[in-house]
Design brief:
This protein has nine helices and three strands, in the order βαααααααββαα. With 225 residues, the protein is mainly α.
């Protein structure tokens, strides 16, 4: 399912959401400029679950590993990876920023991204494949949207072979189905190698969604103080 737009109008200009999209775009263009060195850069700036697990469990030096929890969420593995993530962020992020405020939204986004990566590390602690992408942080945004606007309508394109019907679905159904799909895929490929999982961090998606839903009340409360 491909979201096209939602029915909730933001009351403020989502400066932070636009900035996040711009930073991800600029980072990807930088990756492209590196040519053959891009893979080396991704390995250095992405989250390697095995390295994070070693840092946490065996007390290895943490500074560089901790930094990758931040840098990884601004990198992407290809145009489709980038555009798919940015589409979801553009559609759902502005409303969450509207409710949390600009500063609160930025902190919320980063925390969801970190939490999602740590969930993936917990589920795949021996993986040496670098984890990159804004998917985990955006999943947190989706979790917050799911709680805030369950009755919102999402105009959705459903690819069915050569047909592409466009229907309007409730956010509760759209995002609930999305989360269920991530969870089931994670469970299906639990214990499988990186190649078998298609390189997709399903548990990071599911974990980020839950993190967003759990953190949302805290941030709403803090904004009222």
């Amino acid at each position: 399912m491909i979201p096209l737009r939602d029915t909730i109008k933001s009351k403020t200009v989502p400066f932070v959401n636009y900035a996040l999209i711009a930073i991800c775009g600029a980072a990807f263009l930088y990756e492209l400029s590196l040519g053959e060195r891009a893979l080396q850069f991704i390995r250095a700036a992405g989250v390697t679950p095995a390295a994070v697990a070693a840092t946490i469990l065996r007390g290895h030096p943490a500074s560089r590993v901790a930094l990758t929890l931040l840098t990884s969420m601004f990198l992407h593995g290809g145009w489709m990876h980038l555009l798919g993530n940015m589409l979801y962020l553009y559609i759902f992020g502005d409303n969450v920023e509207d409710r949390l405020g600009h500063g609160g939204y930025l902190v919320f986004y980063i925390l969801c991204g970190v939490a999602s990566a740590l969930v993936q590390v917990y589920m795949q602690p021996s993986s040496t494949a670098p984890l990159i992408g804004a998917s985990g942080a955006i999943s947190g945004v989706l979790g917050a949207y799911f709680i805030l606007y369950p009755k919102a309508r999402v105009l959705t394109m459903i690819p069915l072979f050569v047909f592409f019907p466009v229907v309007e679905l409730s956010a509760f159904f759209f995002l609930g189905f999305w989360f269920l799909l991530q969870f089931l895929q994670g469970a299906l490929f639990a214990g499988a190698g990186d190649a078998a999982r298609g390189g997709v961090a399903w548990w990071a998606h599911a974990g980020g969604f839950v993190a967003g839903a759990v953190l949302l009340p805290v941030f709403l409360l803090l904004r009222r103080l």
